[in-house]
Amino acid sequence: MTRLVLLDQALRLHDNPLLFSGTADNNNGDATGQNPQQLVAVVCLDKAAYFSRQYGLQRANLQRLQQQLQLIDHTAQALEQFDIGLITLFGEPATEISTLARSLQVTDILAATPHGYREQQTIALLSERFAVTTLDINSLLGSAELAPELPRLPDSFSAFRKQREPLLLVTAALPPFQPQPGQQWLTPVETAPFSESFMQLAPFRQTSLSAGSSEQQALQRLNDYIWQHAAISHYKTSRNGLLGDYYASKFSAALATGSLSVRFCWQQIVQFEQQQLTNESTYWLKFELLWREFFRWQFRKYGKSWFSKNAIKGPLDFSKPSLNNKQQLKFNNWCAGQSGVPFIDANMRLLNASGLMSNRGRQNVASYLIHDLGIDWRLGAAYFEQRLLDYDVASNWGNWSYIAGSGNSGERQFNVIKQAISYDSNGDFVRAMLPELSASGSLIHRPAAHVTVPGHWHNWLAKLTGPGQ
Ligand SMILES: Cc1cc2nc3c(=O)[nH]c(=O)nc-3n(C[C@H](O)[C@H](O)[C@H](O)COP(=O)(O)OP(=O)(O)OC[C@H]3O[C@@H](n4cnc5c(N)ncnc54)[C@H](O)[C@@H]3O)c2cc1C
């Protein structure tokens, strides 16, 4: 018997029940109840998710591809220490995995339970061909006792939180993986010949690390943010920051790629509360992790609908968003951080340079694109998908449709000038990102002369002032 252990979205050694497969102690996650003779670790990079286009936009930029390749390399090295090989595949996942499974005479497959539509399709296709077991290792509510019933899952976050939060005694995380008695993994020498297709990606590999590109880096950040800097203790008041290292956790890239276990993260917060301090801020970080959780389950409930023009609220319409010439120009300028609205441009240039943007920034640039420029929200979501190093299908498309009013909320329109005054009152963030602007104080937020100013901004534009005024 050979079991294929699929490590997609599970490239980590801490709290990874998939790696405890085949051990005598089934409590460690061997939900299959069978002990295979042979285990083989596999990861597949989905070619279409990185190299295809949607609405004319490349799905992932080089930075995001490189981050994923680094994460795969790091995991392969970590497993190699235990003489375990990692087969790396590249192509259409169901096809690549099936071909490999047949050539290795695999009897069953163990994988992380997906939340994205595409990944769910892959598991469904594999299930037609092999015995597949999935474990929900990246959710807080992943255990059978906590998992919501999808048909009864509330569509409002508040209702979801009220229903699920009281249950949240998150199950204990597993210790870091060590090879277990009785486990027999294929070794690096044995797995090497199966990773040929992945070699095509060699030209894209690079050595310098970006956020979320190794498990070690993710665990260091967790330790640094919660324990060393105790920055969690001011999370609620600083989380609307725009720039800097400690205004928010920056766990998102590691949580999105799966190199950080959300269960472990939650338990570290609880431990901090028990040993150091419990306050509104420590609660609020857990509250935000519940937002992540909410969107994951929403994606399981509504699947493909999330990519329709009206998302979960209307007739399905998967037609490509259309833009006239004027809108195309506005969209291009928005992407490039050249809209002429300083607060928007500063955030977009930060995204383009770093692959990240604060939550406050994301809400504003999304609202501006949808409600002030009148552009289909799916184009914004697609551009974010290409750029974000913390790209997660549910958090991204869920938040975009939320602001558009086609998801779990009515329309959310932000007044960009009011927001700029509230969150960048002296214009320091804009000044840091747009050095070409020289206006002093909050006057720096004044839009360029060519911008068509939305009516609801006028009162707020009148409040912009120079320093000390
Ligand atoms: C238009 C738009 C698109 C977004 N796209 C993504 C995305 O692709 N991937 C992503 O992880 N987040 C996304 N978010 C949510 C949020 O902006 C980021 O999670 C957050 O800014 C990441 O920084 P952080 O880790 O410092 O977050 P913190 O403020 O420290 O929050 C802790 C964690 O909670 C979760 N979280 C926080 N806010 C949200 C939220 N609104 N929705 C879902 N989860 C949340 C994240 O996992 C985050 O790491 C998006 C928000 C908007 C408005």
Structural overview:
The chain has helices at 47-51, 62-80, 93-103, 117-129, 157-164, 188-191, 215-228, 235-238, 252-257, 262-275, 280-302, 325-336, 342-354, 359-372, 377-387, 393-404, 416-423, 428-433, 458-461; strands at 2-6, 38-46, 53-54, 57-58, 86-91, 108-112, 131-135. The protein is of the alpha/beta class and 469 residues long. It folds into 3 domains: 1-137, 3-Layer(aba) Sandwich (Rossmann fold); 215-304, Serine Threonine Protein Phosphatase 5, Tetratricopeptide repeat, CATH 1.25.40; 325-461, Orthogonal Bundle (DNA Cyclobutane Dipyrimidine Photolyase, subunit A, domain 3). Helix 11 (280-302) crosses helix 16. The longest helix is centred in the middle third of the chain and has 23 residues, at 280-302. The termini are far apart. The model is unreliable at 25-29 (pLDDT under 50). Bound molecules: flavin-adenine dinucleotide (FAD). Flavin-adenine dinucleotide (FAD) binds at residues 239, 248-252, 255-256, 285, 288-289, 291-292, 295, 358-359, 362-363, 366, 384, 388, 390-392, 395-396, 399-400.
Rg, Å, rounded:
23 Å
Helical fraction equals 40-55%
CATH topology of the largest domain: Rossmann fold
Structural class call reads alpha/beta
Structure characteristics:
469 residues, alpha/beta, Rossmann fold, Serine Threonine Protein Phosphatase 5, Tetratricopeptide repeat, DNA Cyclobutane Dipyrimidine Photolyase, subunit A, domain 3, 3 domains, 5-stranded parallel beta sheet, two-stranded antiparallel sheet, binds flavin-adenine dinucleotide
